[in-house]
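Extended Data, panel c. Modelled sequence:
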Amino acid sequence: MKPFILCTVGLAVAVLAGCSENTKSADALDSDGYVVRLAHAKNAPTVFSRAPTSLSGDVTTVDRVVWNAQKQQGKMYRYGGETPQTGFDCSGLTQFAFGQGAGVSLPRTAAAQYNAAMKISQDQATKGDLVFFHTHGSRVSHVGIYLGNGKFVHAPRTGRAITTEALDGYWARKLIGFGRVPGACRPSLS
């Protein structure tokens, strides 16, 4: 009976690990390009977590926020949109990405998100910070998620798809500043 149990457990671990040559210990890729990671907690059952595969090392909350925004690329802008099913406007995209990736509830508009964020300088800005613009008048009217290296992901405007752009030219001229979202910088459990 014991060899049967050991063989069954071994088979279950192999199946859960994805039976892949590209896996590391108990990590495997699922059909959405996630790493499925077995995590063991003391006196707790086995837990499975999902994390973007393009990341090295431990997945942070910020990584999850950025991934949730980048996954929407190619979907068309929709004024007032705030879900993958309806499409997104700029603040709907950031609200969705922070809600899904960090469990943080952002205000609904770009201006309200600016007011809620901790202001930081461009030199301090890192992946996952919000980047704010004035596309209409001089007040905050647009927001994106900074990716680092002078790039950001955003929902630009009607007729355009969610995309990644460089923070130069038009966007550099329209830049108001950067903001960090309290509660979104903590490490994620993985």
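The longest helix spans residues 2-16. This feature is highlighted in the accompanying rendering.
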